[in-house]
Amino acid sequence: MPEVVRHLLNVRDKPGFLHRLMVEIASGQMSLEGDLSRCKFADDLVIANEEIGLLKRNTIWPRQDFVVLRLEPDTIAPIFKQALAAGLKRAIIHVQIELAGMLQLGSYDNFYPGSVFTGPRVSGALLSELKSNRVLWDFAVAPASSG
Questions:
Q1: Phi and psi for 16 in degrees, rounded to 5?
Q2: At what angle do helices 14-24 and 76-86 cross, to 10 degrees?
C-alpha cells in the first residue's frame, strides 16, 4: 500500500485558505466547532449536529457548538458566508473536511501553526501555489503516523 502524504501548514490567510480547500475538496462533508451562534445554516446543508465518522469534536470542555455540513460545489458559498459571519479568528475553533473516508483537512485551535494538516487529496503543488500567493506562510511533509 502506498504511503499517504500529509502536510503540516502554517496558514497566513485563514479565509483564503479555507475557501480554496473547500473548493478543492468539494463533494465531501465538513465540520465546524466553536461558537456557531452567528451561523444560520439552511436545513438542507446540515447533516448532523453530533460527531459522525471521522468528523469528531475536538474540545471536551467547555462543550462547543458542532455541526457537520454537506460540502458540495453549490454549498461552498453559503457555508463560507456563515463561517465568515461567525469569525475564523476566534469563534470557529476547529474545521475538518472529510472526503472518501479520509480526513483531508484538519484545522485545530484557530488555525494555530502546527495544528493544521492536509490529507492526500491536497497536493504539494497546490500548497506551493498557496504559499507563493501568500495564503500560507509555509508547509512541510508531516511525519508518518502509525495509525
A1: -60, -40
A2: 160
Q: What are phi and psi of 136, to 5 degrees?
A: -115, 145
Residue 128 lies in a domain: no
Give dist(CA 107, CA 15) in Å, integer: 12
Structural element, H or E, at residue 116: strand 116-118
Whether 42 is in a domain gets the answer: yes
* pLDDT, position 90: 86
pTM of the shown model:
0.93
| Total count of domains within the chain | 1
Query: Does residue 80 sit within a domain?
Result: yes
Question: Which pLDDT value is given to residue 1?
Answer: 46
Its domain, for residue 102, covers 7-117
The strand pairing partners of 36, in sequence order, are none
Q: Is residue 11 part of a domain?
A: yes
Residue 124 DSSP SS3: helix
**Three-class DSSP labels, 50-71:** CCECCECCCCCCCCCEEEEEEE
In this predicted structure, what is the pLDDT of residue 147? 44
Partnered with residue 33 across adjacent β-strands are 66, 94
- Averages of pLDDT over runs of 10 residues in the chain (147 residues) are 78 97 96 96 97 94 95 98 91 96 96 94 96 98 69
